[in-house]
C-alpha cells in the first residue's frame, strides 16, 4: 500500500536571492508498507524539479518521522514563526 499525503515544488520564484546556484526542488510525503517486514513507514522524497525518479527517498520509521517533525518545529520557532500543527 502506498498513499500520497502531500507534495510541493519550490520553484525559482520561491527561492531566496543568492549568489549561490539554488536549484528548484520538489518534495513529496507518502506512507508505505511495501517492505519485507510489512511495517508502515513515512516516505519522504526530494528531487530536482523536472528530474522525476532521480531524487533521494528516505524511508522513515515513525520514530525518525517524529524526530524530523520536531526539528522542523524547532527551526520554525527559532525563526520566530508559528510552528503550526
Task: Write structural notes for this entry.
It is a single chain. The chain is of the alpha+beta class and 85 residues long. It has one domain (2-78). 20% of the residues lie in helices and 35% in strands. The chain is built from 1 helix and 4 strands. The protein has one helix at 62-78, and strands spanning 2-10, 25-32, 41-48, 56-60.
Q: What strand order characterises the main sheet?
A: 1-2-3-4
Number of helices: 1
Head-to-tail CA distance between termini: 26 Å
- Given helix and strand content, the structural type is alpha+beta
Q: How would you name the oligomeric state of the polypeptide chains in this document?
A: single chain
Largest sheet: 4 strands, antiparallel
Number of domains: 1
Number of strands: 4
Strand content: 35-45%
SSE topology:
Blueprint: E1 2-10, E2 25-32, E3 41-48, E4 56-60, H1 62-78
Antiparallel strand pairs: 1-2, 2-3, 3-4
Keywords:
single chain; flat; 85 residues; 35% strand
What's the gist of this structure?
With 85 residues, the chain is of the alpha+beta class. It is built from one helix and four strands; from the N terminus they run E-E-E-E-H.
Amino acid at each position: 500500500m502506498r498513499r500520497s499525503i502531500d507534495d510541493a515544488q519550490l520553484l525559482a520564484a520561491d527561492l531566496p536571492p543568492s549568489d549561490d546556484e539554488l536549484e528548484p526542488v520538489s518534495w513529496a510525503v507518502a506512507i508505505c508498507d511495501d517492505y519485507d517486514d510489512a511495517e508502515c513507514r513515512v516516505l519522504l522524497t526530494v528531487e530536482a524539479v523536472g528530474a522525476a525518479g532521480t531524487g533521494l527517498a528516505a524511508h522513515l520509521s515513525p520514530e525518525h518521522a517524529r524526530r524530523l517533525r520536531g526539528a522542523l518545529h524547532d527551526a520554525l520557532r527559532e525563526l520566530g514563526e508559528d510552528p503550526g500543527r
